[in-house]
Structures are given as structure tokens and as C-alpha cells.
Amino acid sequence: MPDPIPRAQPPPIRAVRWWRWRRNPLRRRSDLLRAWIGLVLAVAVAITAPLAAWAVGTTVHDTLTAAAREQARAGRHTTAALLDDAPGHPEPGSAESRETRYPVKVGYTAPDGTARTATTDVDPGLPAGHRVRVWTNAEGTLAKPPMPPGDIRNRTVGAGALAAITVLFTGTSAYRLTARVLDQRRMRAWEAEWQRTARRWTTSP
Length: 205
What we know:
Layout: H1 29-74, E1 76-82, H2 95-99, E2 102-109, E3 115-122, E4 131-136, E5 142-143, H3 149-202
Antiparallel strand pairs: 1-2, 1-4, 2-3, 4-5
């Protein structure tokens, strides 16, 4: 039995690029307006995103660097002795144990010569009497040491990238909102035109 004749298939529909910029009878004013708005927003984002990243990154870098210098000027490193044993990690030698710190009470001498006690985070399993380096501020209180340059650089890059992403997101959201408003306006105009046309078709002679 011969094979049945295959049904005719419609030709594939190809998406025409840049159709809003080309003259054609189906292009509406809103289509051209949408194209221009998209172009303006794309140029604005391309210019603003690097500038925002540079401005925010520079501000964050200068602020963190100044704070680190002030901390380094006012404080200092000193040695403290553990007053209690640090808890042991349930999985010694694992990657998690190398990242884990436990709060333990320590004793140290403040810059004014007085003996003080405080709590600081130390590696697991350290015995009482073990000495660790701590940072004291101008008042002799334990505090976080100044941020190292590597951390400052990482935060600067992160802040700059976040600023650029924010600009990109804002531009994309503005374009989508504009497209939605234009589409709604076009649909209302189409509905009004259809109502006028429908009355001529349905009116009896």
C-alpha cells in the first residue's frame, strides 16, 4: 500500500529583527516609541552602570580604608592567655573544624597596664593557658582588628558590582513597565475602534 500523501505544512515563521525600526504598514506609533525608549534606556544603562560602579566602589574603598587606618592608629595587637579550655570540634582535622571558632574567656594586659578579662573566639581544642593574639582598641577593650587590604578590595568590588546590577535592573524594569503601559494603551484603542466598527456591521438597514 503506497504511503499516504503527507499534508502540506505551512512555511516556518521567521522572526524579523529590528522590525520596529523598519517602515511597514503594520507598524504602529507605539511600536516606534517603544523602540526609541528601549534605545535610550540601553544607552543610559551602558553609560550609567560603569559610572555607578566606579562611584560606589570608590566611596566604599575610601570609607573602609579610612576606618582601618583609624583603628590601626588607635589600637594595637597584644597577647592573651586562655583561662578555660576551648571546646573540641566533633570532626577534628576537617574543613569545617578549620573554619569553626569557639568563644573562650581570656586574660590580657591593657595598654594602661591593668589586667583584664574578656571573651574572644579561638580555634577549637586549645587548652587553658594557650596564648593567642588579640586586638585592643584605644580603651583597651577587645575589638576586631583593622580590615586587611584583601577584604577591603573584595568589599569594594562587591559594592561596585551591586551598583552596576542595580542600574541594569532599574533600566530593565523601566523598559518592561513602559512596554506594558504602551500595550495596555494600544489594547484600549483597539477595543474602542472595534466598538465603532461593530456598530456599523450589526445595525439593520
